[in-house]
Amino acid sequence: IAKEVAKLLEMKAQLGGDEGKHKFVLKTPKGTRDYSPKQMAIRERVFNAIITCFKRHGAEVIDTPVFELKETLTGKYGEDSKLIYDLKDQGGELLSLRYDLTVPFARYLAMNKITNIKRYHIAKVYRRDNPAMTRGRYREFYQCDFDIAGQFDPMIPDAECLKIVHEILSDLQLGDFLVKVNDRRILDGMFAVCGVPDSKFRTICSSVDKLDKMPWEEVRSEMVGEKGLSPEAADRIGEYVQLHGGLDLIERLLQDPKLSQNKLAREGLGDMKLLFEYLTLFGITGKISFDLSLARGLDYYTGVIFEAVLLQQENDHVEEPASVGSVAGGGRYDGLVGMFDPKGRKVPCVGVSIGIERIFSILEQRVEASEEKIRTTETQVLVASAQKKLLEERLKLISELWDAGIKAEVLYKKNPKLLNQLQYCEDTGIPLVAIVGEQELKDGVVKLRVVATREEVNVRRESLVEEIRMRTSQ
Amino acid sequence: IAKEVAKLLEMKAQLGGDEGKHKFVLKTPKGTRDYSPKQMAIRERVFNAIITCFKRHGAEVIDTPVFELKETLTGKYGEDSKLIYDLKDQGGELLSLRYDLTVPFARYLAMNKITNIKRYHIAKVYRRDNPAMTRGRYREFYQCDFDIAGQFDPMIPDAECLKIVHEILSDLQLGDFLVKVNDRRILDGMFAVCGVPDSKFRTICSSVDKLDKMPWEEVRSEMVGEKGLSPEAADRIGEYVQLHGGLDLIERLLQDPKLSQNKLAREGLGDMKLLFEYLTLFGITGKISFDLSLARGLDYYTGVIFEAVLLQQENDHVEEPASVGSVAGGGRYDGLVGMFDPKGRKVPCVGVSIGIERIFSILEQRVEASEEKIRTTETQVLVASAQKKLLEERLKLISELWDAGIKAEVLYKKNPKLLNQLQYCEDTGIPLVAIVGEQELKDGVVKLRVVATREEVNVRRESLVEEIRMRTSQ
After folding, report:
1. Which of A92, A172, A200, B452 lies at a C-alpha separation of 20 to 30 Å from A257?
2. pLDDT for A125-175, tens place per residue?
3. Range of lowest pLDDT (A9-13, A328-332, B16-20, B286-290)
4. Least Cα separation, residue A2 to chain B (angstroms)
5. Which major enzyme category is it (chains A, B) (predicted)?
């Protein structure tokens, strides 16, 4: 028996070895995913809404490579730089995958000496972050960016960016949302008057940035404990960052005895007032909140910053906080292009980035829940036959239809059953079937069947294209 | 004086040092490029033509990540594997940028156990090749792939792929073209009857693949000199690879005393005959040539292979050969999905890949030559004012227009000159100007100016949207 077992084990090992030949890990890289045809159909809807809005605002479109010279990205993202994907050094230049579309845009402007452009760019960006795919956080994800570059009168382009966020989130019907607005100059002024040393501005700013995920007490202890801020300074910050409101709050802070003494804060508050006046003209202040706790992570912002969050629906009986996360963000970055220009010439820029993945997750869940049937093709007609030996006739007819611009399919079988052909239409949502048969060929007609009603009419072959067009035009 | 010079030199050195801070190499990585708005406009035209065709043939669309697990790409590309871009090992999985869309498609099918799909995929792929950017050869470039996967009756999907190539190249009006067709089984059969040892099939095949760039004599000496093939075998191959034609040639080779003895060749020729019968039904044999010199580089093809080349125009007085290079290619790869399946289950596939970059280069040059003016935005109307202090009124009006879905722009100046506003329309091709002024506001009208004719009419504010729509509908 022992001998037999040994033999069997040996055989098993051999089989294992053979299987090993095919043993691929069948997956996409961590934090990435494929898009199925159904997901693509939803994705295209979202893109269409966004692109339509960007074009409505007169934007051109550009594209840049997926990777940049490594040094192009260096020193632009502060602490987040560790999340950049580098390419292997295979000889030649050192390259990194783009981390956002803003830095490549600034590089593009400086390289082509463009001082004035309104453009959008929709493309994938890459971050070696901890993925949370169910909440729409991926390592490869789309950004949809709209930016206005150029020397203009204050706050007009900034207001347009907020109008765009408002239009897109309204169009997509994602439920209630709120756009928080702040200004880096107000934050810096606030840090100054609260007694934060200059050298700690950035790190205290990134603590403030965590207020959407942590309670104030935790943020305060990070400031005091980890970052060595005095408890008094932290408490003073604590009073400010709880404030949010509209024009009234801006007016109040302009009168604030401490803040109003600070030049940066005064400039920021003055521009914020102007911004809110323009937003009033646009009729969108109802969903905009001036919020002193908004800080945003990225290093390159210099003025207005903003972030849009979706609010929990009342009928969403979930035990989560009221905000389900950021779906758009942006701000002003007047220094970034100058970092690339050999002479440091600045091009002021302001822009918005729509985070498509979270929006997409929400819409995908909604489609799943509603059991709405989404077509993944646009085929108007299936060319079919009821009898055998008519493949040639089917191919001749479908070729005529394709050449006339009709979207048509045929089953790749010599003699498919009519039932299978009709079933294919049911499954894929094809509305019409063009049936060729011996008799129809003799009579110079094609039998056109409406899948939904099972109605059948004979159509003269020369009128078929027109008839299909008529019956499938919305 | 010497002292002064020293001082000046020191100052210069200091300035140089400061400049150094901004000294970035301002470029895109080797073999890549940005797309300007004008280039994007041309690119979108080409994509639209291609997508329209793919949808006409009932294809769904998918997307996959830009990188794959390195092992997913291993062993799929033969000698070309050295051109794959690897990502740096930053901990975690080893990744590579995709080299084409075919291998990710096969991985997608195996991973999701899909045995039946017709899909297209348009995305960038990456090859560390020697770039020749003026001829449209890049390291980052688009592929537009259409593939049919599934067990079907022979040659029906294969014929559809060729029909698609024919439709797209005709639609794009790139001038005369030719689609060369061959079959890997015919090649292998030919190698066998010519006396090529089994072990040399692949390497001799890649020599044959060079026949579109080298004369036969050079290819022959590579076969005999570098690859150690006997001169007799090479000469026998030489006789075959000069042959090209249509159904007549297929018939002749089916009678060929040597080839007809080889099972693989017989199968290939039989299918080729069937393919040409279907292509005849599609009415496209005029631009299709059965060409025994076509080999294609990639390892994974198992049956029909094809490649479309643009032919030099007669009026193109250039001293180049008649073919300006491949713009589409494809073939049948019945084994690739099985390489990913744990049990080796095969899913037969056939597909076509349109090489957009060369097509795009040609169209770009054509646009440059024709001085055709390409609009890069779709803006219908500029909201303008003739007098000062009307920014608020302009913003109110443009907000109304945006909310009604009108594509509108406004200059980001408090008090822009009317002339500058009209000039902006001329420059960017905006057809209409909506002018607000004190009098118009009192009268409840907006002055609508047609840029091309300078005609001006007063339109009641409540009719403005309708009037703009009417005047800008094609």
Report:
1. A200
2. 999 988 887 777 899 999 999 999 999 999 999 999 999 999 999 999 999
3. B16-20
4. 30
5. ligase
pLDDT at B25: 83
Q: What are phi and psi of B86, to 5 degrees?
A: -100, 150
User: Which pLDDT tens digit goes with each residue over A275-305?
Assistant: 999 999 999 999 999 999 999 877 789 999 9
Q: Classify domain A37-370 by CATH architecture.
A: 2-Layer Sandwich (3.30)
Residue numbers of B between 400 and 419 with CB closer than 8 Å to A: 402-403, 405-410, 412-414
Tell me the mean pLDDT in the region B118-132.
94
Residue type, position A374, single letter: I
User: Measured between CB atoms, which of A66, A107, A156 is closest to B140?
Assistant: A66
- For chain B, what are the domain ranges? 37-370, 381-471
Considering only CA atoms, which of A160, A154, A143 is closest in space to residue A353? A143
Is B127 known as a binding-site position?
yes
Asked if B35 lies within 8 A of A63 by C-beta distance, the reply is: yes
**Mean pLDDT along residues A388-400:** 96
Task: Nearest chain B residue to A150 by CA: give it.
Answer: B412
Which of B63, B282, B407 minimises the CB distance to A35? B63
Distance from CA of A286 to the nearest CA of B (A): 15
| Token pair in block for residue B49 | 């033509």
- Residue B408 is inside which H or E element, if any? strand B408-410
Domain B381-471 has CATH 3.40.50.800: yes
The pLDDT-based confidence of B19 (bands split at 50, 70, 90) is very low
d(CA A164, CA A53): 7
- Note whether A296 and A353 are within 8 A (CB): no
Tokens of B319: 């001293």
Closest by Cβ to A377, choosing from B59, B282, B408: B59
Query: Which residues 336-355 of B are in CB contact (within 8 Å) with A?
Result: 339-344
Asked if B333 reaches chain A (Cβ–Cβ under 8 Å), the answer is no
User: A12 touching B, CB under 8 A?
Assistant: no
Does any CB of chain B come closer than 8 Å to the CB of residue A93? yes
Say how far apart CA B257 and CA B252 lie, in whole Å. Answer: 10
Phi, psi of A452, deg, nearest 5: -65, -40
Alpha-carbon distance B28 to nearest alpha carbon in chain A (angstroms):
6
Report the b/e string of B186-223 with b at 16+ CB within 10 A.
Answer: bbbbbbbbbebeeebeebbbbbbbebbeeeeeebbebb
B420 touches chain A (CB under 8 A): no
Chain B CB contacts of A130 under 8 Å are none
pLDDT confidence tier of residue A232, bands split at 50, 70 and 90: very high
For B251-308, write each residue's pLDDT tens digit: 999 999 999 999 999 999 999 999 999 999 999 999 999 999 999 877 789 999 999 9
Write the pLDDT tens digit of every residue in A380-392: 999 999 988 999 9
| Helix (H) and strand (E) counts in chain A | 17, 16
The model carries a pTM of 0.91
